[in-house]
Design a protein that fits this description.
It is a single chain. With about 180 residues, this protein is of the alpha+beta class. The protein has one domain. The chain is built from three helices and 13 strands, in the order E-E-H-H-E-E-H-E-E-E-E-E-E-E-E-E. The chain has a five-stranded antiparallel β-sheet, with no helix packed on it. A five-stranded antiparallel β-sheet has the order 3-4-9-8-5, sandwiched between helices. Strands 7-6-10 form a three-stranded antiparallel β-sheet, with no helix packed on it. Strand 6 and strand 7 form a beta hairpin. The N and C termini lie close together (about 5 Å).
């Protein structure tokens, strides 16, 4: 199950739909897993998957930025639960929001995630399609969660508008599967 947040800048009118997560194990995710295991996934993503399967360690690119990270906050119990639930190794591609370090644009992309007996690993950075900067970093879901502020009628969130840098208002939010 995933979550979504529809946000709008009350200053300039910018709107964005942030999506996190994905559906439960369905035909699409099982087909994706088969593609990766058979080596038939999209070339760039297959390379990430193959690197993870071979090394299952943190890797860095030529600029010493981690492009795959291990979930260091995952407890042993959470890992064991994930291994039982997903029958490791398991690969998924949940939705995630990134923010470009250069142009500040929000990007909605699928994020490769691998669960195996060594832990949970996820890709860290993506390339911005707008300015081609390779430093678009993930934005925590918490940044889009509504919070009540004094002296306002709407629910605001911690995310900033990429156009004018004002705080964004949460119009609607919910779950999708």
């Amino acid at each position: 199950m995933g979550k979504f947040y529809d946000v709008k800048c009350t200053h300039c009118g910018y709107t964005f739909r942030a999506k996190y997560g994905g559906g439960r194990a369905n035909d699409d995710s099982l087909a994706l897993k088969r593609k990766f295991e058979e080596g038939k996934a999209e070339k760039g993503l297959q390379g990430i998957y193959d690197s993870l399967r071979k090394t299952v360690t943190e890797r860095e690119d030529r600029h010493n930025r981690e492009f795959v990270t291990q979930d260091k906050n995952q407890t042993d119990e959470e890992l064991q639960e994930a291994l039982l639930m997903f029958k490791a190794p398991w690969v998924s591609d949940p939705w995630y929001v990134y923010e470009c370090a250069e142009c500040k644009k929000f990007l909605l992309r699928k994020r490769i995630k691998l669960i195996c007996d060594k832990g949970t690993f996820e890709e860290q950075y993506v390339k911005c399609p707008e300015c081609r900067n390779p430093d678009a970093a993930p934005v925590d879901e918490e940044d889009f969660r509504p919070r009540k502020l004094e002296n306002t009628d709407g629910s605001m969130c911690d995310a900033q508008c990429p156009k004018c840098n004002e705080t964004l208002a949460v119009l609607t939010w919910g779950f999708w599967d």
